[in-house]
């Protein structure tokens, strides 16, 4: 049975006003946690009851991949420091928390017209003492709830139309509905939706020259969510706490920041306050779900507690 909160306005009712643009959820929750507010304590308790086998499945790709890094990020250099008496400490140079499996904080993307989530000014985001919209907002709370895996790759393969991970394939809301129906699973308030498109598996099959071609810092073709407004509407009206995928940008690439329907991030993060995850390694979880036919379970993640941080390593687990 759905537990959808009818007190929260539908997307169609996010009409804006003097201090809030259309399509924005500013002021809905009264804090800066964004859609994580949907993952209430009651929803986490319900998610915990889904654990049947005690199987823990990490969703974190190696911090050394992709190599070379993509989208202008840099590779970390790992140093070991030998301790007196034996043993080691480590430190990293050029560590980009959003190079591999990652969360985007609500300060990661600014809307080109309306600015940051909740209308926060840049001065608030850069405040040296209490920076707004940083990843610490989620780190000090944690991310937990019911996950639902949408195996887009597996569904399309079963339809005889396999997904090309090197293409700019757009995952529409109709396709998501079809995938979830085929898996006999329905979304509910506070869920964390995980999208398997098979990108990481495809990437690891590339040769050195193929990986180098993606590591120029430029945008390249990759599958992901359809960038049109309908996707934002669907996510909000399902009351999702977070959406994460195994592709580089959650939405399809290349994206077009000059168009309102060309860059989904601008709607999801600064307008709706959605927790966005990218490059999650969903291979083991997908294999497990295909084996037992259960596409839901308990999800937990602990982002880095960095005040004002624009993102974090995923630090995520699925438990079934």
TrEMBL record:
Output the superkingdom of the source species: Bacteria
Q: Name one Pfam family in it.
A: Cyclase
Q: Which InterPro entries match?
A: KFase/CYL, KFase_sf
This protein is called Cyclase family protein
The scientific name of the source species is: Phytohabitans kaempferiae
């Amino acid at each position: 049975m759905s537990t959808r909160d009818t007190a929260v306005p539908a997307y169609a009712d996010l009409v804006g006003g003097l201090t809030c643009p259309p399509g924005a959820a500013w002021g809905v929750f009264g804090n800066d946690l964004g859609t994580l507010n949907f993952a209430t304590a009651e929803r986490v308790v319900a998610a915990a009851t889904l654990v049947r086998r005690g199987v823990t499945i990490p969703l974190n790709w190696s911090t050394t991949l992709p190599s070379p890094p993509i989208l202008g990020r840099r590779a970390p250099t790992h140093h070991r420091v030998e301790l007196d008496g034996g043993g080691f400490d480590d430190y990293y140079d050029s560590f980009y928390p959003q190079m591999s499996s990652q969360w985007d904080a609500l300060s990661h993307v600014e809307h080109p017209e309306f600015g940051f989530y909740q209308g926060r000014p840049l001065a608030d985001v850069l405040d040296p003492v209490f920076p707004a919209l940083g990843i610490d907002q989620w780190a000090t709370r944690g991310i937990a709830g019911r996950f639902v895996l949408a195996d887009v790759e597996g569904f399309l393969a079963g339809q005889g139309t396999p997904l090309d991970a090197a293409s700019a394939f757009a995952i529409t809301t109709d396709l998501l509905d079809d995938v979830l129906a085929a898996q006999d699973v329905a979304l509910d308030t506070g869920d964390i939706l995980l999208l398997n498109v098979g990108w990481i598996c495809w990437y690891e099959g590339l040769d050195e020259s193929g990986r180098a071609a993606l590591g120029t810092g430029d945008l390249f073709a990759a599958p992901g969510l359809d960038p049109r407004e309908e996707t934002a509407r669907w996510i909000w009206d399902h009351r999702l706490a977070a959406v994460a995928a195994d592709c580089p940008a959650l939405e399809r690439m290349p994206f077009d920041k000059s168009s309102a329907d060309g860059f989904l991030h601008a709607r999801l993060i600064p307008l709706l306050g959605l927790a966005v995850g990218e490059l999650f390694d969903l291979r083991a979880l997908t294999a497990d779900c295909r084996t037992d036919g259960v596409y839901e379970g308990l999800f937990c993640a602990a982002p880095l507690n960095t005040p004002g941080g624009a993102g974090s390593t995923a630090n995520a687990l699925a438990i079934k």
